[in-house]
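Students often ask why we bother encoding 3D structure as a string. The short answer is that it lets us treat folding as translation between two languages. Here is a chain of 316 residues written in the first language.
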Amino acid sequence: MIRSNLPAIPSKRRAAGAIAPAALCVVTLIVLLGAAGCSETPVDTVEVAPGISFHRDKRHGVQLLDIDLAVAKLRPIVVAEKVNNHHGNFVGNAKTVREWAEQFGAVGGINGGFFGDTYDQIGRRKQIVQLAVVDGKVIAPGSATRTKNGGIYTRSAVGFSANGRPDIVWGTGTAKLGPRRRSGPNSAEQSQPWNVEQAVACGPRLFASGVRRVTGREELLPSPGKPARAFVAFDHENGAPRHLVLGRADSMELTQVADYVATYFPDAHGTTPREAMCLDGGPSAQVVYRDPQSKAVTDAEPTGVMVPTAILLVPR
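And here it is in the second language, the structure alphabet:
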């Protein structure tokens, strides 16, 4: 068992009829606020739709979407728009994740991969860095990159099948060859076909085949310090992905994100993480969800940063 250096996450699983001390505190708080004439109280969990919830973990500074893939009537997709080749750089429209979600009628979403240069005066056209696959087509290529000392590295990528099944690999691809996968971040072996309809590369990897494996150095993404970090993770049940998590941490080292993932799944679902990786971080890290009451898309921690790729949860 992996031991986390983070404080324990309050368990979501309770015996039938049991009332947790935290729940008693919430009840007491509601009564006190009601007596004071206040009608609203802050909530930590929002049931966005059947099988999908938004959770704000204030203790650890994490906001996340938790999707039960066996229940939710939705699928994850990668979105990008009007991508063209500008002298070897692949450039697309850029929007906040909230704007992407509103455009596609999404229930929730998170930012995608790395981006590079800006190609207009207002930040609405940005370079997509490394692999992006939309509707089965590679719209921005990804490659295994040679280093100055003759080595090779490949970035992690998250992909989704036509029915929304997630997969995380070290990914490459071109418009001619389609999405490809490699056996490791520094593998010099030939790549193999990767059967996904949607994908975006970023990194580094945090878990691989159920083993904690933080590949920051191998992917040339050491990323020291504690910026905001976006991440994606999922577990397995009966040999298939079951719970998909799209998360944002306010301030964590890479190893702390891995620790959090390692703690979250046993507590929330009684499982262990199968695969996990980071998406673009810093001000780009954004998680949004559609409020079930107002139907408005809510930004967990607004940053205003416009990104050229995003992962959205849309109806099947």
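Translate back mentally: The chain has three helices and 26 strands. Keep this in mind for the problem set.
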